[in-house]
Fold this sequence. Notes:
Bound molecules: adenosine-5'-diphosphate, magnesium ion
CATH topology of the largest domain: Nucleotidyltransferase, domain 5
CATH architecture of the largest domain: 2-Layer Sandwich
Number of strands: 12
Amino acid sequence: xxxTSLDGVDAVLLAIDGERYQILGTQxxxxxxxxxxxxxxLHEAGHNELERSALIANTLSNTYAQAVRHLLENCGIKxxxxxxxxxxxxxxxxxxxxxxxxxxxNPSLLAELTGITVVADFRxxxxxxxxxxxxxxxxxxxAAFGHAGLDRILINIGGIANLTYLPAEGPVIGFDSGPGNxxxxxxxxxxxxxxxxxxxxxxxxxxxIQPLLQELLAESFFxxxxxxxxxxxxxxxxxxxxxxxxEYKAEDVQRTLLELTAQTIAAAIRDYCPKADxxxxxxxxxxxxxxxxxxxxxxxxxxxxxxxxxxISVNWVEAAxxxxxxxxxxxxxxxxxxxxxxxxxxxxxxxxxxx
Length: 355
Ligand SMILES: Nc1ncnc2c1ncn2[C@@H]1O[C@H](COP(=O)(O)OP(=O)(O)O)[C@@H](O)[C@H]1O
Ligand SMILES: [Mg+2]
């Protein structure tokens, strides 16, 4: 899995035994600064995009293959012992409203480099069936974290934040609430040259700028009813910068961006998740203590836990989800939840690059 944060590749070795999921090994492979920059540039229209995209996809596949190699070395398992790699690819455009989403990566090359069957391009089929193609993790959240007697919410805070409502009875609800870490990451990188705000400490040193917060909250995406999904296409520095005034202090802007993430998640829960007994966080944003504290205030009296308590560490839920989705594809079982994505029906997702 490599998500919108562009921090790198998360790889897990997931053993699936019936409805039991066990993580046997994990591996994080950060992107090089050059690859990260190339990917960021590719998010915007530019010269000779097709060729650049193909070349970057090859570099990306080499990075994925390196992650797989290190993961399997650490676990002492041969490539021949692996059923398949579920490879999300790197989203460079997400435009379900125009009928497409693009995750680059070269699955053929990854299959050649590893000798392992690759399942890729998970989102396109759902979009072709009229859905958002996202979020796809709710089906795995349901399989791994659903509880017959409890209404649970999973909040995944990556670059974008998405939630999954797992009621004890009734359909699963899931959608993107808006930015997760992405705007905070972009702002601290621009101001202080750091990739992210460690534990949210910089944000915690600032004050919320109310007029700015209100202006950001006025974005029409937040008022849309689900199904809905978003990405860097909307929430990026070009969205933020025109709304800033020179008198704003940089740390106050960071605090306001944290507040935006927290409030839009809390509002999404209030509006669309009628009753929650338990709320769990996952994704890299779960490490942002200031964000966790703010979410806890907004969502009380329900106590917020981490997905670790449900058996999968916050760092690995999304990667595990794509291993599970690959299994669904190989079993010829659907991977989407039409109630979540808005697709016309359940669909077998992805393409198989067999070995
Ligand atoms: N210690 C930390 N403190 C604050 N934020 C963190 C910390 N560790 C990770 N993050 C955030 O998590 C992000 C990565 O989360 P991840 O779940 O991998 O997102 P994505 O799926 O978009 O790649 C980082 O960009 C950063 O914003
Ligand atoms: Mg990531």
